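To the team - pyridoxal-5'-phosphate complex, inputs and output below.
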Amino acid sequence: MKAIRRFTVRPVLPEALHPLSDLARNLRWSWHAETRDLFQSVDPERWAASENDPVRLLGNVSPGRLAELAEDRRFLRRLAAAADDLKDYVTGDRWYQSQSQSSELPAAIAYFSPEFGITAALPQYSGGLGILAGDHLKAASDLGVPLIGVGLLYRHGYFRQTLSRDGWQQEHYPVLDPNELPLSLLREQDGTPSQVSLALPGEKSLRARIWLAQVGRVPLLLLDSDVEENDPGERGVTDRLYGGGSEHRLLQEMLLGIGGVRAVRTYCRLTGHARPEVFHTNEGHAGFLGLERIHELSYEDLDFDAALEAVRAGTVFTTHTPVPAGIDRFDRELVARHFGPDAELPRIEVERILQLGMETYPGGEPNLFNMAVMGLRLGQRANGVSLLHGHVSREMFSGLWPGFDPDEVPITSVTNGVHAPTWVAPEVFRLGARQIGAQRTEDAMTVGASDRWDAVAEIPDQDIWELRRVLREQLVTEVRERLNASWRQRGAGTAELGWIDGVLDPDVLTIGFARRVPSYKRLTLMLRDRDRLLDLLLHPERPVQIVVAGKAHPADDGGKRLIQELVRFADDPRVRHRIVFLPDYGMAMAQKLYPGCDIWLNNPLRPLEACGTSGMKAALNGCLNLSVLDGWWDEWFQPDFGWAIPTADGTAATDEDRRDDLEASALYDLLEQRVAPRFYDRGPGGLPDRWIEMVRQTLTLLGPKVLAGRMVREYVERLYAPAARAHRSMDTSSARELATWKSRVRAAWPRVTVDHVETSAATTTAELGTTMSLRVRVGLGDLVPDDVEVQAVSGRVDSGDRITDGTAVPLKPAGGPDQEGRWLYEGPLSLDRTGPFGYTVRILPTHRLLASSAELGLVAVPSEELVEAPGVLMR
Ligand SMILES: *Cc1c(COP(=O)(O)O)cnc(C)c1O
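Output:
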């Protein structure tokens, strides 16, 4: 019989057990092993059956067992201790509160992301972007950073993956009932659920309620459009993560950005939480948040340009992808319709909105609205997610700052990190605790003091090797269980599956490869030369075994074909004990997989992996990385603790097939000649000494770097604090002043010119240490010297006379204007390096409220004729 209505009946806990409910609703349990142990002891069997989810556990425990626990003095003591510990954690001072200039730090930061991966029990993520957002919130909580997370609650989350008999990906969309998730509904004082509402074209509206997930100290607000007041179409807006067509995506992003700001306002009003001074958008999807804030300011009598300045000052934009297909672009018309006069943000002219998303650079599509471009225009501060990705992003977006070298494009980088308490296996944590104590191990993992990590040096080889064996063995067990479930699902009967007991060997070198399956990640590179792979897997003395997992986007048939290719290879009875594909890669699997592997393999097409984080999680468990020098590995790789797969980007990059051949062959060589021998070679004590040394170096050298705590501190120091200062300086009169000044400068700029440059010595050779004096005449049109900086830029030049590592020195105004309105500037030019050297002069706008002199994308340089003149550019 099918029920006509469905409820969730919540358990009634005996009074003495009430703290359990608070512990279950604060997601800190997801990174706090002690709290999880407590829940496990409530009912070990049901704990396992509820997939380690405390809310589900409490819904399933029998009243008899609860009554028993309510009388169990030992349990009650542990419960009280855990509740106390959580209270201390949530209310005590942490890193942020102990900063000397803490009053200068933002009172609150709103962090927007389309997905959050916090725990498998709250499946609201698809991959790296979401997990990163989850790790960001958790690390912020550990550090006491006053973040408010903002996202959407998807009724089906992302999809669950199984395989058909012949290895084709199948997608399933289980319904998630928010009442069964670790969430509570945000309510008004009178108890009615709070709502936000967006106007849609055609006199329709999109309403959403707000769920609250408590992530340690950090509240996470999740908007849910599945409310009865909505029409069926609007109810479905938050149905799936990254599903649906263009309009569906646009509505999701409008709800996230615009509705998200409204949800934050509601939350602050109801709870008294400080209002955010900084808004951080994790990728462009939430970019409409800037428009909503401009709209808010229109009620404070700021016109669009002034409001834009006010909003930019407090906005941080993080870009996550160098793959153009990874950027959201909408049809201009579609955007125009949703921001038209009968839709949202009626006080902003739609033309102004459209301009923000215009691809105004060569090759840009005039009919598309680009969310990343808008993100860059709405935020005064922007960053990529590794050094290399920062570099690639500056190149990629340099068209928005014409006249500037890519190096000067105002996009910095903060390299991603991972939340160690979430990703370090309990066994690894315990080894650390044995060595230096539990508290210091926790500190090492959250704040990242590198001297704490040095203690790894003292751990005996034997202990490290035993730990690695334990972790590998646990993985083997896990893999067999998952493989068994998968084969049953694929239609196999018990009698056919005896071979699974022999899958993987706890003493064989184990390689992991798990990630989403966009083509640039090259899931099947390892299959390039199947004979060589067979030799590696079946090597008589030094075999390797490989565990593979990953989901392809439901619309990506190419990705599904790659999965099928891999599955078919792994199904082959000759190798199926040495290579497996596990369906449904997610956080629960990942937490077992990373620790159990000896090698974490990553072979993306360089430089398309913006950062990558799975290798960091593996490293924290003593797994060694074998990877293309892309993302974070390009930055931190050292031969002491891992291997770099040589790449054929650059010249060979034009021929993709050839490139794959070269890189796959390099991968096989490394595995065969370096990795496997090192793993199997035993020293005098019977241990693989050199391997263990690499594990040790991985932990001591990478441990403190790869932490999300390190990442969040960098965000605070390099982006949030400056953004908060800029926000505070930008009161309404400053915002108006800056907007007026910018428009005046833009209008005047065509008449800003470098007219004449002369040096004291017009020689073509010069000696190191010589100082020459520069005299420059410039035209400023309607501007005055206060509006500009005239700079001498000098440095090494390449064969095309381009200055490669220039330093800029401001010149001083020395009189003027002359009769033609020209100003004289002077200054010294010191020849401070040998070899080919050159200089040039340029004029930039300058204002105390700018974050970078490239901000306006305006620069005046000498004309061609002037460059040709002798003495201007020396070689
Ligand atoms: C860490 C993680 C990712 C991201 O890994 P990348 O190295 O960035 O590809 C994806 N999915 C899960 C489940 C993860 O834990």
